[in-house]
Specification:
Strand content: under 5%
Oligomer: single chain
Number of strands: 0
Mean pLDDT: 85
Structural class: mainly alpha
Largest sheet: none
Low-confidence stretches: none
CATH architecture: Orthogonal Bundle
Number of domains: 1
Distance between the termini: 42 Å
CATH topology: MetI-like fold
Radius of gyration: 22 Å
Number of helices: 10
Order of helices and strands: HHHHHHHHHH
CATH class: Mainly Alpha
């Protein structure tokens, strides 16, 4: 779909949006529209990866903490509270800076601060479900803890967790783009929306350099929020009936 090579530097520098270059060019003569399209493969894909990893890690810890309780619950939840005690962006920045500037390290840094909400939400749902008659009946029939979690608990927490993950994709994209904006994510010349906005700061009078990557990021956040709301309405029988 890209009309030009997103890495090619053979166009006029700082060309405004026009018939040939729809969204203009940057300081190196690269087509902004082509770089936005190429950057979508980085920003959206890594946001999806981050949310999947956060959901799996947080849900696993939440399931274990809520089902087994006692010292297991106390240990996991206190560690979760410790992570939540730090400002999200600051902790992600410190972790990314310690690991080194790369998009993979930015995902790992974002993972450190993204899993605790899933752990807390899943734990609260498991605590309300584990006392149910069907869970107790399964345990009396000889279900192991793993089988009880898999057959009785997990199907009931999967829907709300999936909705939460869908709504969180936009937040993940913003966090990863923020790290790239600060120089802790992708390295030039790889196109990524946050780094494109960061590069536009040096040429603030060239309004198209930061405006269009920002609008692309805004559209993705709004799109996944709408999808998450629709998914929540579809999975919630009470809302769907109303």
């Amino acid at each position: 779909m890209a009309p030009f090579d997103p890495l090619a530097q053979d166009l006029p520098r700082f060309a405004p949006p026009g018939a040939e270059t729809w969204l203009g060019t940057d300081d190196l003569g690269r087509d902004v529209f082509s770089r936005i399209l190429a950057g979508a493969r980085v920003t959206i894909a890594l946001a999806l990866l981050l949310v999947c990893m956060s959901m799996l890690l947080g849900s696993l810890l939440g399931l274990v903490a809520g089902f087994f309780g006692r010292w297991v619950d106390e240990t996991i939840m206190r560690f979760t509270d410790l992570v939540l005690a730090f400002p999200t962006v600051i902790l992600a920045m410190v972790t990314a800076a310690a690991l080194g500037a790369s998009m993979f390290n930015a995902v790992l840094a974002a993972l450190v601060v993204s899993w605790p909400p899933y752990a807390r939400v899943v734990r609260s749902m498991v605590l309300s479900l584990r006392g149910g008659d069907y869970v107790a009946s399964g345990r009396l029939l000889g279900f192991t803890a793993a089988r009880s979690i898999r057959t009785d608990i997990l199907p009931n927490v999967a829907g709300p967790t999936l909705v939460m993950a869908t709504l969180d994709i936009g937040t993940a994209a913003l966090l990863l783009s923020g790290l790239s904006f600060l120089g802790l994510g992708t390295k030039p010349p790889t196109p990524e929306w946050g780094s494109m906005i960061g590069a536009a700061v040096d040429n603030f009078d060239k309004w198209w350099l930061g405006l269009f990557p920002g609008l692309a990021l805004l559209s993705v956040v709004m799109a996944f929020n709408i999808i998450g709301d629709a998914l929540r309405d579809g999975l919630d029988p009470g809302v769907a009936k109303a």
